[in-house]
Amino acid sequence: MDNQKMGSKIPQTPQKSMPSQPAKQDGSIFGGKPEISRKALEQKMRTDAGVWQAERSAGLNLSPAQRAELIKKDIPQVYGSNVSKTDLNRSIAGLNKKLLGAKTPKEHADIRKEISFFKKIGGIK
After folding, report:
1. Nearest CA among 67, 23, 70 for reference residue 45
2. Interior CA angle at 82 toward 101 and 72, to 5°?
3. pTM summary value
4. Left, alpha or beta for 19 (phi > 0: left; psi -120 to 50: alpha)?
């Protein structure tokens, strides 16, 4: 039965539109892509301001060339020519193993800072 034929009027409430949330932007070095080429990653490590901020917040004080060397040192070529978040997670796991074998407190602190840095640039919690 139709409400108009019955004589009862149901007030129509205007539909509330949900406030649009801003699109989540990937603040990592991957820029929303699943992977990035090794050369582009090294270039970002040298020039990207977000990488510099992550470095400072992790407590590292490296030159742009040293940041690019971190990629060569900690993310091996075995993973291929492209670096993904999975590769970054593997490298972090490798650094965690290296952390267990650290002999001095300074070496331990340096590895801990590198882990923190990689987590920040990779968008890993």
Report:
1. 67
2. 40
3. 0.75
4. beta
